[in-house]
Fold this protein.
Amino acid sequence: MDAARTDATQPTRRALREQERAAEAIAMTASEARAVERVTVVEGAATLYVSRRALREAATRVARDLSVTIAEPTYTAPIITVDAPSLGNGGEAVPGVRPARPLAPRVIRRASIAPPPQPKPGRGRRVAQKLSAGGALLFIGSLVVVTSLPAQAVQPGAGIDPEVAQIHDDAQTLDSVSAESTTYFARDDVTVNDQMAVARMSAGERAAYQAVADGEPVGRSYTGDPAFPQVWSMLKTGFVQTPFPTMDQVALSSQFGYRPGGFHGGSDLTPGLGTEIRPIANGVVSAVWQGNNPGGGGYAVFIDHNIDGEFVQSWYAHMMPGTINVEVGQVVDITDVVGQVGSSGRSTGPHLHLELKNADYVSFDPMLWLQTREMNLEHR
């Protein structure tokens, strides 16, 4: 009995939790009261809240007092305009929808009824039918042959009709051209457009141009103007080629543009040591450097070209010593050999540095320029 009475007097866990909550509420209220005592409220100032709970309660009261007005809907359905000029309405009307076609009626085919068997003709009758058919074919064939032959084919043996003999006054012949062991027949009304053959200079043309160049004083080669302006104006051409026109492909070790160490003003071609170099077009030599090119090109040659009236100067640098075959003032043809690929000057291996300059004396991409000229770079 004493133990039971003792347990009944002890508070339960629920009672303990309620006591703790009441104590926390009292403490919070006391803390808020102390905070209020420390705050001085100025008339007309905004309301101050000393706790988050008071702030939430005030916000809830303000929200409840707010008047809510539902605005009228402002959405307007868009008007879609279809422009269909291909339908003939020019966009002024929306194309209509074609009505569905009615289903086609189903056709049920009936099985055909085989005709009754015919009696087979006798053997003699079959032989007679074959003979008559063969005779008819022979008759028709003879008519076709007779009507298709020309008149002179059925002339009498005495000779040819004089009217037929006068159709062609002169005898017709076809000349033959022998080339090695093969015979070809040539016609005088067929022409072949060979741009490379047209671009080549004959011996007489080269001599005339060279005479003009020999009578001109040597100009400077670093100005963007022709060193020999008179003969340069006479060497106008539209044909250009690579420095290695007999090769199908040539590897590039360095392209035009920026690279480690600075700007590279040309393209480095590596066809192999000793490969012959030809000019990109007809022109006149404006400078020759025997290993002393100031730009580090070693053995180099500059050639001035008149490409469709525009000034273009081509550089051929790092050539093999002792292989330069041209001199300043010499008129060169696309078939001439300027020199051979080497590794002279500031070079790390055998290659040709091909650089092109315009009238402003600015370098431009030689490979891209050759491609834009739409030249045939294959083997000739």
